[in-house]
Amino acid sequence: MAAKKQAPDPEAMILDLLATKAGMKQDVYGKAKESFALLKEQLKQLAGELASAMAGRDPRLKIEFSEQGEFSAKVVAAGDTVVFSMHTNVFRLDQSHSLWKTSYLQEDENRGYFGVINIYNFLTDSFRYDRERDLGYLVARWFVNREGHYFLQGKKQLGFLYNNLAESVLDATAMRKVLISVLLYVLDFDLLAPPYDQVSQVTVEEMKQIEAYSMVSTGKRLGFRFQADTEDIT
To answer: Most exposed residue of 107, 134, 153, 161, measured as fewest CB within 10 angstroms of its CB?
Structure first.
C-alpha cells in the first residue's frame, strides 16, 4: 500500500518564501540603494562642472546640487528644479510589459523585480516662493534590478534611448549619460500659459495671496498630465 502523501508544512513554506523571494527583494533593494548613491555622486559632479562652465557665460544662471536625505536629491538648473526620489519598496514589472517577452526575463523571472527612482520636474520658483499648489511632472521612472541592469520609462528620448534591459548595465558612465539626457529633456520642456478661462476669476483671498507671493497655481504645462502625452510610454 502506497504511503499517504504528507501535506506541505505551512511554516516551512513561509520560511522558504522568506529565504527565496524576500531575500531576492533585499538584493534588489541593496542594488537600487547602491545605484542611487552613484546617481547622487554623478549628479553632484555634473552640476559642479556645468555651474563652473555657466559662470563664465552668464553668472545669473545658477546650477546647484543638494541632497534631501538618503533617498532624495535635486539639481537646480536656473528656472528648473529636477528631483530624484528613490522608492524604498521593490516592484515586480507589470505582467503585460513587453520586456517579459525577452529571453533575459524569461530565463530568470527574478530579473523582473526592480527598485525604482522617480524623476520629477518643478519650476524653481515653486520652491523659492513656497507655492505649495504648483505642479510638478513625472519626467521618467528609472528601473534597476538586482543585477544592475536598468531601463527608463518616460517620454520621447528618455523612453526609447534606454529600454534595452538585457544590455544596459548601470555604471558611472551610463549614469552620467542618462542624467545628461534628463536635463536636456527638462530644459526643452517649456512653461506654457494656462488657458484664459482657467484664470479669469479669483477670490479676494486668492488675490491677497497673489499680492503677497504670487500664488496662482503654476506648472510647466498647467492642466497637462504626463499620461495624456501623445507619445507612448515604453
So the answer is: 107
Which range of residues forms the domain containing residue 134?
23-224
Cα angle: 63, vertex 65, 69; to 5 degrees = 160
Backbone conformation region of residue 69, classed left if phi is above 0, alpha if psi is from -120 to 50, else beta? left
Cell 520621447 belongs to which residue? 156
Q: How far apart are CA 220 and CA 190, in angstroms?
A: 6
pTM: predicted TM-score of the whole model, two decimal places: 0.81
Number of domains forming the structure of the chain? 1
Assign 192 a pLDDT band (cuts: 50, 70, 90): low
Q: What is the average per-residue pLDDT within 107-113?
A: 96
Q: What does the buried/exposed string (b/e) look like for 52-71 if buried means 16 or more CB atoms within 10 Å of the residue's CB?
A: eebeeeeeeeebbbeeeeeb
Which among 100, 66, 41 has a CA at the least distance from the CA of 74? 66
